[in-house]
Amino acid sequence: MAIRISGLISGLDTDSIVQELVSAYSTKKENIEKKQTKLSWTQDAWKEMNTKIYGFYSKSLTEFKFMTSFNGMKKTTLSDSSKATVTAGASVVNGTQSLKINKLAKAAYLTGSKIKSNDKLKSSSKLSELGIADTELEFQVGDKKSTISVNGDMTIKDLTKALSDQGVTASFDETQQRFFINSQESGEEFDFKFNVKGEDQEVALRKLGMLSADYMVEKTAKKAADDDIQALRENATIKASAVQIAGITEDEFDALDETAQKEYLDAAIVKAYDTDNGITTGRDYTNKAYVEARLNNFREAVTDQYIEDLKGTDKYESLKKEYAVKQDASNAEIELNGAIFEGSSNTFTINGLTITAKEVSDSTLSLVTETDVDAVYDKIVDFISQYNEVINAMDSAYNADSSKGYEPLTDDEKEAMSDKEVEKWEQKIKDSLLRRDSTLNSIASSMKVAMAKSYTINGKSYSLSSFGINTLGYFVSADNEKNAYHIDGNSKDESAKSNTDRLKAAIASDPDTVATFFNELAKGVYSELDSRMKTTTLSSAYKVYNDKQLKSEYDDYTEQIKNWETKLSDMEDYYYKKFSSMETALSKLNSQQTQLSGLLGS
Q: Which stretches make up the Flagellar hook-associated protein 2 C-terminal domain (predicted)?
C-alpha cells in the first residue's frame, strides 16, 4: 500500500472522513466476521458434545452390548487367605472346591563361607592370592552341565561373571568376604550345584568358600556307610550266611581269594537287608547284578540315615559355620479337588482359577466361587452414571437460556470493556449455541426412547424399572436432569438411597437375567447412536453432527471476509485518490495566489 500523506493543505482529517465514507463496507465485513466467530464457537460446542457422546458410545455401550461384560465378574473366597490367594476367571463355574498347599516353590541359594585370606579381597583380586592354581569346576544348572576353567590370573570378578554366564546370579560381597549365588527362578529345573570330581576341585571350592556344608555332611555319611559295610563283612553271622550262599564249607570259603569272598559277603549283607525289608523268598543271591544294585540301595539308605542323624547336631551346626550353606530349589505342589499339581512357580493357572500359594497348609482349605454381586452392581451404576452425564449435558445445551441481543464483540468493543466483562459476554453466547438445536434434540430423543424400552427374557418383560432404576419425575427432578436415572438403594444417591435395593437383589438371585437385559438395552442404545455416526456428505465418521457442513460454511465466511476486505481496500484507495487530487488543486491555487500577491506588491 502506498504511503498516504493527506490534509496538509486543506487541514481536513482525511483519514476519519475516508473511514466514515467506507463504514458501510466495514460494517458488512465485521458482521460476517461475527458470524464466522459464532460458527467457530458452535463447532467447538459440537466437538465437546460429540466427545461426550462418543465416549459413552465407544466405552460403556460397547462393553455392555457383549454378554461377556459380567461373565468375568467372579469372587472367590478361601477359608484361610494366609495360605494362598485365588482369583477366578470368566470360565470358572460357581461352587465349592477343595485346596491344599503341600509345598512351596523355592529358588536355590548358596551363601559362601567367609574366605580365609591374609589380605582383604576385592573384586579385582586374583585367585592366585587364595593359592588357587589351574583347575576345572563342573557346574550344573538343572540338567545342563558346564565346565568353568579356573586359574590364578582370573580375578574374583571374572569368576562371578563366568558363573553368571551359566544362568545363575553370582556376586562377591567385599564387606562380608563371601560369594553369593542364586538361581534366577524358583523350581527344581533351575537348581544348581558344583559336581566335585576330585581332590583338586574340592580344595579349590574350599578355598573359594563355595564347598557346601551339605557336601561335607554327605561325604562324612558316605564314609560312615562304607565303614558299616566293611564292618558287616567282618561279622561272623554275615560270614556264616555267605558260606551258606556259596554252598561250600567254611574252610573252602577261607581258601577263596579276597575278591570272591567279598562277593559272597556282600550277597549275605544284601540277604540280611532284604529280610529286614520283608523280602524273604524268590531272590538269587548269586546274581551279581542284583546284589550290586541292592547293595547300593543299602549304602544309600545307611547314608541317608547318617545325614538325618547329623542334621541338628552340634557337628552339623559347626559345618554350617565353616562351609557354604546351600538351600536347594524345590517345586511347589498343591492339591485341587484331590488332584496333585506341581510346578516351578508358586502360581498355578488351572481351569480358569489363578492360585498363588503363600504358605503350606496342614489341612484342606475350602474355595468358594460365586458371582461378584458388588462388582456387577458397581458396573451398572457406572453405566447409568455415564448415561446421565451425557443426557444431562444434552438437555442443558438444548434448554439453555437465549442470548438474543448478544453478538461476538469487535476489537474496539472489547477495548471499552474489562476482561471479566468480555468473558461474561462471550460465555453468554457460547452457552446458548446449541439451544433448540434440532440435531441435538433428535439424538437425545432417540437415546431416551431406547433407554425406556422393555425387553423380553425367558418369556418375561423387563425394563429398567424392573430393577428399581427410574427417573424422578418431571416436577421432582432438578432442571435439565429430568431424564436422568436413579437406582433405588444407591447409597451415593440422596434421592433414591432410602428405597429398596432391587438391583442388587436381582444380581444376587438371577445374574444371567440382569446381564441379558443390560446386554439388550446397550444394543438398543448403541444401534441408535451407531446409525448417526456413519459417514455422509454432511458429516464424518463417528460424528453425530454435520461437521463437514459447518466447515464448509466456515470456509465460505472466510472467502466472503476476504472479498469484503478487497472491496474495502479498493474504496479506501478510491477516496484517498480523490482527496489527494483536491490537495494538489489547493496547492496549485495557493501557489498562484502567492505569485499574484507578489506582483501586486502586497
A: 329-591
Torsion sign, CA atoms 272, 278, 279, 280: positive
User: What is the torsion angle, in degrees rounded to the nearest 10, for the CA atoms of residue 388, residue 393, residue 394 and residue 399?
Assistant: 120
HEC string of 471-516?
CCCCCCCCCCCCCCCEECCCCCCCCCCCCCCHHHHHHHHCHHHHHH
Strand, coil or helix: 151: coil
Residue 296, classified by CB atoms within 10 Å of its CB into exposed (0-12), middle (13-18) or buried (19+), is exposed
Question: For the range 159-164, what are the long-range contacts, defined as Cβ-Cβ under 8 Å and sequence gap of 24 or more?
Answer: 159/127, 159/208, 160/123, 163/139
Which phi-psi region, left, alpha or beta, contains residue 220 (left: φ > 0; alpha: ψ -120 to 50)?
alpha
Interval 29-45: pLDDT, tens:
888 999 999 999 999 99
CA 201, 203, 208 angle in degrees (round to 5)?
95
pTM higher than 0.70, yes or no?
no
DSSP code at position 576: H
Please check whether residue 453 is in contact with residue 521, taking contact to mean a CB–CB distance below 8 angstroms: yes
Q: How far lies 70's CA from each of 415, 522, 527, in Å?
A: 59, 13, 21
Rounded Cα distance between 270 and 286, Å, is 11
By three-state DSSP, how is residue 102 classified?
A: strand
Which residue's entry shows cell 571350592? 205
pLDDT digits (tens, 9 = 90+) for 557-601: 999 989 888 887 777 777 777 767 776 777 677 777 777 776 675
Helix (H, G, I), strand (E, B) or coil at 136: strand
Phi-psi region of 354 (alpha: psi -120 to 50; beta: other; left: phi over 0): beta
- State which H helix or E strand residue 56 sits in: helix 23-56
Beta-ladder partners of 365: 99
